[in-house]
Amino acid sequence: MVLKIYNTLGREKQEFKPLKDGKVTFYYCGPTVYSQQHIGNLRGVFCADSIRRSFEYLGYNVNFVSNYTDVGHLTSDGDGGEDKMEKGSKKEGLSPAEITSKYIKIYEQDANDLNITSPTTRCLATNYISEIIDMVQTLLNKGFAYTTDLAIYFDTSKLENYTQLSGQKIEDLMAGAGTGTVNDKQKKQSTDFVIWFFKAGKHKNALQNWPSPFQSPLVENGDGFPGWHIECSAMAKKHLGDTIDVHMGGIEHIPTHHTNEIAQSESANDKKYVNYWLHNEHLGFDGGKMSKSLGNVVFLEEVKKKGFNSLALRFLFSQTHYRSKQNFTWEALEAAQNGLDHLYNQISELGEGIGEVSKDYQEKFKEKIGDDFNLPQSLVIVQELLKSGISNEDKLATILDFDKVLGLKLKENNGSHQELEFGKLPEDIQSFIKERDQARVDKNWIKSDELRDIIQNLGYLIKDSESGTQIFKG
Q1: Cβ-Cβ contacts under 8 Å for 296 (sequence gap 6 or more)
Q2: Which of 75, 85, 365, 374 has the fewest CB atoms within 10 Å of its CB?
């Protein structure tokens, strides 16, 4: 079977040919941990996870590296940029390290709830300052970078194909289109981007800074911190080498972050940086954009508090191709929860005997995920399998095999999500449910949520539907 991947760099589906037979080197741009990740961010993580699982299902050994950006993520490549880590630190009265620790813990719990596979290597950018400094020095030595009083910039005029990934017109960018606020008068071109900020100018009071061999008349010991783009280049090189098979992130990374990664990595290493660039589309909310800046976000904890299984969100994500936009609504999530419960019940009806994996259906499933990781079409094969005439034992073996990609914990939830009869529940659970139902009638939402938490802590999952309160074994 030929695996075809849509490569952003070539703007077409291409046959996948790894650098080494049977192996995949895969880098994913992970979260910036100055705040909590909303479900739009988590959809990107899910997309990378489903692709990583697909590679492994197709027989590849995947070295999957992802990062935490825990230093100096600026909204601009000029001196006028806003340091998001510092903003979060000051807002919450915590040090950058404490902010990082807090939001990594929340993120990893969310990832676990969504059954996201752990990376082979997880990188904290602050642990790679020496590697970053080495790459900056290499770019300076080779003439691809220059120093001002405020920063060290990559010189984009040195590259003929700077916009190869985005396809943008360099003359438009040079004219200033799409650039942020620039306060460094020594910067040569609007497209030049920072690879090292000195602790000077607007950043003279930066909370995060390290000594370096670089010189500025405004600081001692070259004190400063890295630009965002150079962090990923240094970490990818450290763990995956000069050239890697696959690099993935959201589509927002195409015109700037990933474009700049290519520029600095290929200039420093004299080799092609990435063979296949993958980008996932955004998750919207009620037909609009989901964005922290708009305050229009949903967090996974809210999904759980409303009584939804976290895996219902994973099931919802599975229904849209990673390169397509997806719109989140609570109605869509309820439909996904119902669909997942139905799937669990279908599987429970197959019994406990496990037979042989159907080679015919396995090939159909591989064909779908081999076509640019088409997960929605793979779900069609799941239903075809369940409606087929093969034995229940073989159906169960096959669908559990598919779950290596789907990640819906079909084996663990086999038979556990059938709705329970109210009259057969323990008396204390019945009492809590009645009390909660009355709180909902009284619109006492705080009490309702408290009772939901009590019920869930006792091992039961509550769901509010048009027909009333439903309860399942958690």
Answers
A1: 285, 288, 289, 290
A2: 75
Phi, psi of 248 (to 5 degrees): -135, 150
Please classify residue 395 by burial: count the beta carbons closer than 10 Å to its beta carbon, then call 0-12 exposed, 13-18 middle and 19+ buried. buried
pTM of the predicted model, to two decimals? 0.85
CB 346 within 8 A of CB 386: yes
DSSP letter, residue 119: P
Residue 3 per-residue DSSP state: -
Q: What are phi and psi of 430, to 5 degrees?
A: -60, -45
Exposure letters 57-93 (e unless 16+ CB within 10 A, then b): bbebebbbbbbbbbbbbbeebbbebebbbbebbeeee
Domain ranges of the chain: 4-280, 283-406, 422-473
Lowest pLDDT segment from 53-57, 70-74, 101-105, 286-290: 70-74
Smallest CA-to-CA distance from 323 within 1, 2, 11 is with 11
Here the tokens at position 266 are: 């290929």
Q: Is 428 exposed, middle or buried (0-12, 13-18, 19+ CB in 10 A)?
A: exposed
Measured distance CA(218)–CA(216) in Å, rounded: 5
Class level of CATH domain 4-280: alpha beta
Q: Residue 416 pLDDT more than 70?
A: no
Superfamily of domain 283-406: Isoleucyl-tRNA Synthetase; Domain 1 (1.10.730.10)
Q: Which of 375, 462, 380, 395 is nearest to 422 (CA)?
A: 462
Give me the pLDDT at residue 74, please: 58
pLDDT at 88 over 50: yes
Closest CA relative to residue 358, chosen from 388, 384, 397? 397
Q: Rounded to whole angstroms, how far apart are CA atoms 147 and 154?
A: 9
Rounded Cα distance between 246 and 373, Å, is 14
Q: How many alpha carbons lie under 13 Å from residue 170 in its C-beta half-sphere? A: 13
Q: What does the block give as tokens for 244?
A: 């890697």
